[in-house]
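Q: Convert this sequence to structure tokens.
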Amino acid sequence: MADTADTRTPAQIEADISRRRTVLAETLDEIGVRVHPKTIVGDAKARVASRVDHTLGRAYVGANRVVSDVKAQFVDEDGAPRLERVVPVALLAVGVVGLLTLGTRRRRH
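A:
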């Protein structure tokens, strides 16, 4: 059987106990902070904010991709407008605005 006798002096034992008390107090303080309602709410808010940021980031990337795709339909690689596509859309827009204007004028009279 191994010798289990403690060869520390009383001062060393007291110092060890004091050190362990300090570590234990720090651990208990940390646990107290972790389980405090404000900490729990703060952590939950941070998780939600992170998810929202992630979702908004994905939405921004998706919207940016759509805008780029639409832009590519009306602008060539050099940045010049594709008149064969721009002119019909512009004429359609002018026609719709004209019809809406006529409809509004007829209702007023």
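Residues 52 and 58 are 10 Å apart (CA to CA).
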